[in-house]
Specification:
Blueprint: E1 9-13, H1 17-28, E2 34-39, H2 49-58, E3 68-73, H3 79-94, E4 97-102, E5 105-107, H4 111-121, E6 128-132, E7 148-151, E8 159-162, H5 163-166, H6 176-181, H7 192-206, H8 214-223, E9 227-231, E10 236-238, H9 277-287, H10 291-302
Parallel strand pairs: 1-2, 1-4, 2-3, 6-9
Antiparallel strand pairs: 4-8, 5-10, 6-8, 7-9
Helix pairs in contact: 1-2, 7-10
């Protein structure tokens, strides 16, 4: 593919030199012209992490193509919630639109022109707030005639968006009480247990009982009646699944660890901006909780066991 990525890319790094090297190798294939790099600081409580963080930052010396590089290196550890959201604030203060990759997100080369095409096509569509690169439920969509579809779920394993969308991000989930009171979750997913699960994740995120920024972003998209774009094929492999150094994905998950595929061009666009609700239901069970695990979770919640 004779292609160079002209859209700014934000690369989110931390303490995994091998993952960093792999994603930089993939970036070298598309030679982005603008690269923003955020690297969180080492945790004082973790022995040897300072050396790993230093090694990660040194890997940037492998950028050997013409590229404008801007860095945001933290001296102290901010964690996922504040670190990633702060990096995204920094990124979208500088650019109107861009692509975001974490160190363990290894994209197929077609991911980049796909994001660029979607950023251009839907730049003025306020309802479209997120362009995902991963599709953990591709077995349900790979036979689609269109190259992508719309969903209520915002996958962040390689994604893209606009400043106008990120400006609606609420890290503290403002308005959650009204969101719950108005029962807006009912129109998003018909299954009562799935509704309860998502609302509990939103509540825990608001209460800072977890360190997630991603649930805050998914809530912000839903609260603004937004939609996300999902490619019919999975374009990004999460190489951090099962990694003992991962923050949230230490346990291996074959459903999530899908290899990246190549999306064919020219793209075939949907006629309308609307989500297939039946597919969203399957996406929930694949990306959040399987049917069996959801029933178990619901029973544990009902009897006050967490």
């Amino acid at each position: 593919m004779d292609y160079r990525c002209n859209t700014p890319i934000l690369l989110l790094l931390f303490n995994r030199p091998k993952h960093t090297e792999a994603v930089l190798h993939r970036l070298r294939m598309v030679k982005p012209t603008k690269l923003f790099v955020h690297c969180d600081g080492a945790r004082a409580s973790v022995a040897g992490e300072e050396e790993k963080v230093a090694d990660v930052r040194a890997k940037l010396g492998k950028i050997d193509w013409p590229c404008e590089v801007k860095t945001f290196f933290r001296e102290q550890n901010a964690g996922l919630r504040l670190g990633v959201s702060g990096a995204l604030n920094w990124f979208f203060e500088a650019v109107d639109q861009g692509i975001i990759l974490e160190d363990d997100c290894l994209p197929d080369v077609s991911f980049f022109p796909f994001c660029e095409a979607m950023l251009e096509r839907y730049a003025d569509e306020e309802q479209v707030m997120h362009i995902g690169g991963s599709n953990v439920a591709e077995r349900f969509s790979k036979a689609f005639q269109t190259s992508y579809f719309f969903s209520q779920f915002s996958f962040v394993w390689g994604w893209a968006s606009w400043r106008r969308a990120w400006e609606k991000m609420s890290l503290d989930l403002d308005g959650l009480e009204h969101f719950i009171k108005d029962n807006r979750i009912k129109s998003l997913t018909p299954a009562p247990m799935a509704q309860a699960y998502l609302l509990e994740k939103f509540r825990a995120t608001k209460a800072r009982e977890n360190n997630s920024w991603a649930y805050a972003w998914n809530y912000s998209v839903l609260n603004n009646n937004g939609l996300s774009i999902v490619p019919r094929l999975n374009l990004v492999q999460n190489t951090g699944i099962g990694d003992p150094e991962a923050t949230h994905t230490k346990r291996s998950d074959n459903q999530a660890n899908i290899r990246a595929s190549t999306l064919a061009f020219p793209l075939v666009h949907p006629t309308f901006i609307e989500r297939p609700k039946s597919l969203d239901k399957e996406i929930f069970y694949v990306s959040q909780k399987s049917r069996l695990r959801l029933i178990l979770w619901f029973l544990l919640q009902k009897f006050g066991i967490r």
